[in-house]
Amino acid sequence: MAIGIGLLYSLTARFVLGEEFINDSGLLTGSFLCITPVAIGAITAHYSPPTEGKWRRLVVAPFSAVMLFLFFALLFHLEGFICIVIIGPLYLLLACIGASFYAGLADPQEKKNDKTLVVTAFALLPFLAAPLENQLSNPDSFRRIENTVIINAPPAVVWQHIIRVAPIQAHDLGHSLIDDIGFPRPVEATLTHEGVGGVRHATFERGVEFIETVDDWQPLRRLSFSIVPNTATIPPTTFDEHVIVGGRFFDVLRGTYELQPAGPGRTRLVLHSEQRLSTHLNWYAGLWTGYVMSEIQGRILAVLQRRCEAAGATAAAVAARPHYSRFGFIAHN
Length: 333
What we know:
Layout: H1 2-17, H2 30-47, H3 54-75, H4 81-106, H5 112-133, E1 140-151, H6 155-163, H7 170-173, H8 177-180, E2 186-191, E3 199-204, E4 209-218, E5 222-229, E6 250-261, E7 267-278, H9 282-320, E8 323-324, E9 330-331
Antiparallel strand pairs: 1-7, 2-3, 3-4, 4-5, 5-6, 6-7, 8-9
Helix pairs in contact: 1-2, 1-3, 1-5, 2-3, 2-4, 2-5, 3-4, 6-9
């Protein structure tokens, strides 16, 4: 019964707090992401039989209620799989904390009515906090994610592989957790023309495309561009509304490749990007966006590293191969 009531409460909170008249930021709010799971934990602890041990009341019951809520949210398409993965750890942790809070406040009290007042306060808190939170605007947080790789190839080889990225196969990238949770894999990047003003079209799986306009072109040294998602090509089913790139909550603004000398025939390649987060929980959302962006960039750099080193090794072998001059003598480079 405790788990069932916790599930019913969580679904009610999902529908009520998701309404724009309650909070125009939808579900990316502290009232839904932080206070609601605390209330779920308190409710499951309250309705768990007193004869149950603390482990079952304070951990198993809230954990089970949250897992069922996440399952039903996914089953009935209330949330996308990406969002379920993102909010899951936070919900599980805070639900257990909420159960412990309730136990600390209510267990020492002997009167049943007092315990009812405590759990009622927990249950009402998200709905009271949401309208107040709605008065606060979403703060913008600008973040930079950087990845670096050392490539055993000269800058001239590396440069040719970054200005345009040839088609990437799934096996080139290898496996990653972000594939399992639904983020599209990078496919290729084309370039209309070299130099400032050139436009790169960076495509990902499932119709995702970004238009990248070059505004800093320093051959063999630096390539930088602004990024705008091509919303006309992105199907609405590719991303959940809360994680769509270019939406009101998240956007990728810029990307930059930097080539730095790292010794004879070696290049340090740096890829960094700038993102905007606009939620009431930028601290938590930033953990996930930082991980996802770093994983995407790191995988692209790994592909470029293998390609550049293979091309550099081939060029070196050709250069070292003896050949005949037109007079019949053997020459070496």
